[in-house]
Amino acid sequence: MSHNPGYPNRNRSLQGWLSRRGALGAGLALLAPLPAPAETDQQGWGVFRNRFVAADGRVVDTGNGNVSHSEGQGYGLLLAAAFDTEPTFARMLGWTERNLRRRDDRLLAWRWRPEAPGQDRGDLNNAADGDLLVAWALCRGAVRWHNADYLRLSKAMASDFLRYNTFEANGQLLMRPGTTGFDHGEHMVVNPSYAVFPAMRELDAMQPDPRWRRLEAGMLDLLDHARFGRRRLAADWVEVPRAGGRYRIASEWPPRFSWDAVRIPLYMSWGGLANHPAVDPLMALWFDPTRGAGQPAWWDLRTETAAPYEATPGIVAVARLLLAARLNSAQQRTLPMPAITAATDYYNAVLIMLSRLAAREANLNLAMAEA
To answer: pLDDT tens digits for 181-208?
Structure first.
């Protein structure tokens, strides 16, 4: 995808920074070979489908009590469209419509629990990123298979997404995480990683609306200014003041750059925004050899301490995608990506598959799943 012309190409200076610190050398733990068998993207999708997609089309979050949620259905639909698997796409969409569809709009309940058949009736709130991902996948499915029903549903979801999942603050249009539960009067709690930038652009192309561009600009501004701690990293959840004032780390969640925020560089790389200044602190965190062997799975923004364990294969995949997008050079071929067999759970497998898909669509020559 094309790079945003608003951000200058800093590849040359980045290469100098990496070279001075030996970040492309043997001392960089994230670039160490992974114990993964070679597999193509198509084979990886086959493994993902067999492990995490049930026969009825439910995408199973194996690391979270085997629940399912709109986010997972969106990821699954997106991958099925990418790998031209319409029967699987249709089953996943059918399960989503039967079990997550809300009555009063075209949005989705955020969670389904196996111990509560049907919808999790105790909480029909939606998740904005899940709605966005499903609408995006439907748009892609409509184009790939010339399906007018998919297109109508995508347009309906996109329209309700803009209606219910956006809000105004300080002259910016931002993303509301769900229709209820995040408005605290003077501030709104926001999840920066919900901003799926390539989805916004493709949905805008399908059904143009000026709010899409305003939403992208607003979320980018949030990412540029709502950074915390000595390393100036994004937090998983942020308090956004409605009428001026400082951004704060949301008090209801751990003060971390963690499992949510790791998707920010994934979506920004995929959307041609890898050179945005908000990504710079991640390059310093993930590719700083002075930290020694291993990379942190998360970073505490208040105590300035790392997780007591190293980055998982999914995080490694996102980091390598980001580095390839920033360098955009022949050095990409030195960056092997993890295989799906390296993922022990659904979420790590999703991060690996999406990083591969983003690399392919951005024409990055990453070596997929090489040892």
So the answer is: 999 988 999 999 999 999 999 999 999 9
Say which of 71, 120, 239, 370 is annotated catalytic. 71
CA atoms in the 13 A half-sphere facing the CB of 140: 25
Assigned token pair, 150: 């998919």
15 to 31, 150, 285: CA distances (angstroms): 15, 43, 16
DSSP 8-state class, residue 2: P
Residue 242 banded pLDDT, cuts 50, 70, 90: confident
For Cα atoms 293, 297, 300, give the angle at the middle one, nearest 5 degrees: 105
Known catalytic residue: 129? yes
pLDDT tens, 94-131? 999 999 999 889 999 999 988 865 544 456 899 999 99
71 is catalytic: yes
User: Is residue 366 a contact partner of residue 327, using CB atoms and an 8 Å limit?
Assistant: no
Which pLDDT value is given to residue 292? 59
From the candidates 129, 160, 236, 260, give the one annotated as an active-site residue. Answer: 129
Q: What are phi and psi of 257, to 5 degrees?
A: -90, 115
Q: Please give the angle made by the CA atoms of 173, 177 and 182, to the nearest 5 degrees.
A: 95
Looking at the whole model, is its pTM more than 0.85?
yes
Residue 367, amino acid = A
The SS3 of residue 144 is helix
